[in-house]
Design goal:
Blueprint lengths: L1 H16 L2 H11 L4 E4 L2 H8 L6 E7 L4 H16 L5 E7 L6 H12 L4 E5 L4 H8 L9 E6 L2 E5 L6 H11 L5
Helix pairs in contact: 4-7
Amino acid sequence: MEKNLLFLVFVCFFFACVSPAAQQEKANKNTAPDLRIIDSYSELVPLLQQQNDTTYVINFWATWCKPCVKELPYFEQLHNTYLENKVNVVLISLDFPDQIEQKLIPFIKDRQLKSTLIAFTDSDMNSWIPRISKDWSGAIPATLVYKNSKRAFYEQSFESFEELNNIIKSFTTLEQ
């Protein structure tokens, strides 16, 4: 009888540990978000030179930058607002490469970021910063907005979703 009881406890414990819900929860904790790591500027260039009917909003940020973190919800709101339209929000993290696993990925998961996510690890900043914008000092947050040949660069933090959205409206014919 004791063996049967012990066996029953074991079976219950086993199924509790490997239930689909438990497996999914474990997978969610261990799965990295959809984060692409780009190691060189040459890999980033195609994203910065798209020629199509989409408006691209490219935000350069880092987890250690307070103004960057403060404005991230506005970019996520922009992503959600234009989800069905031709606006692509890309968040390019400039976090240090050795912080991607320990800091960046948990940050992305915690805030449930849904925009396109890139960790850019090219350390030759003096080379690529002026290629993105001749007006960029290298400070973040910084945002490039473009559609085909129309481009605007903002080395600033945005104080509201409306401020950011007004810029996007000038690039699109959408009424949001």
